[in-house]
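Posting here for the record, re: phenylalanine.
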Amino acid sequence: SEPSKLQILGSTYAADNWTNVTPTILDKTGRNLLHQPAHPLAILKELIFKEFPTFAHYDAITPDVSTYNNFDSLGFAQDHIGRSRSDTYYINENMLLRTHTSAHQLQLLKAGKKGDRSLLDHARNGSAAPMNERFLVAADVYRRDEIDASHYPVFHQMEGVCTFSRAEIQKIKAAASSPNSSTSSAAQVSDTTVISSENPKQPEHTDEEVAFLVEDMKQTMNNMVVQILTKAVAAKRTAGNADNTQTEFPVRWIDATFPFTSPSWEMEVLFQGEWLEICGCGIMKQKILSDAGMTDRVGWAFGFGLERLAMLLFGVPDIRLFWSTDPRFTDQFAPGQINTFKSFSRHPPCPKDVSFWLPQGGEFHENDLMDLIRDIAGDLAEGVKLVDEFTHPKTGKSSRCYRINYCSMDRNVTHEEINEIQERVRGQMVQRLGITLR
Ligand code: PHE
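Prediction output follows.
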């Protein structure tokens, strides 16, 4: 039985039949990792904020947002997969835990119009531009997901939004092409951007405007990534890590699709021999700007995950470590510094298998199993993997076997304690998922 009222950071919500947030997840909403100055994620956030001195910086907007702001305002179709209850944590039918920082685009673009200062007051710097025209949002975001070393149901994103008035673009372009200007403000991006029918420009935009915005976006993102990776390499060299000598960071732009940008790309950067997916980005849909009352403005946006980059910069091997309160983790970092994490001893893992028949005629969602395990085992569950699957040829019944790897980051676990947890997991699977144990 679900509680009928939910408390999230001082707000009270009525639960309904959409509610699927769990106590384990609600606990995370109060952890505020981005506000602990010596936490790697907060250090990375500050590094990025510094690269954008003319943008307003937001990092204290709570994660309870309306379904409208998270999806509808951004043009997500009614049947978009991201809206499903197996992917998203719903507070109730109308409210959810934001799945991305883009949830605040419309809200922040609108702020400052109609005298609404409620969100603007969260902005941390007095940037040169009005705070709703250029901004960064760093925040915790929530997605139902599998359990392994690189996935966690809570992670962090940084959104960047940059808008220009059309007159401003003309002025910048005129200045750049005048004979006595020495530097062009448009980026010198080496590749030619192909805007194709699969990744089209919007009819509201001229070719010139799109070209300007794309160049500006790519240059801005390039600079940010190069600055940060250069700092990371320098820090590692100072720490005596001589195998880190990379000085150039080639990037590539892969065509992508988002409901709220067109054209859209994923930015990837070559770091230590691997193409790393950094972020999604693109030219903002004009409808969002006009819904915000900015009919004369155009803009670009990006959104990227902080964990992947932080794991690389700080050498953190497991995403769960960011949530550790063990001083052997937290004491290794200091504000403004990129220290390389020295792992403490890995404790022996304790794998347990569970085999069961899927509910006949009923539904089974893997993410329901993941949340059930998280609820009972917390961060002791290091990974959950499907290891066997078959359908009985005669009865048509389907069987699955999952291996739950239990492992603590800071101590040895006993078989007794894990057996007890595993028994509870098995019992709850029967009760809550309608499966039959084998
Ligand atoms: N919100 C997108 C995501 O979470 C990323 C994105 C942001 C893409 C802004 C384009 C523009 O995947």
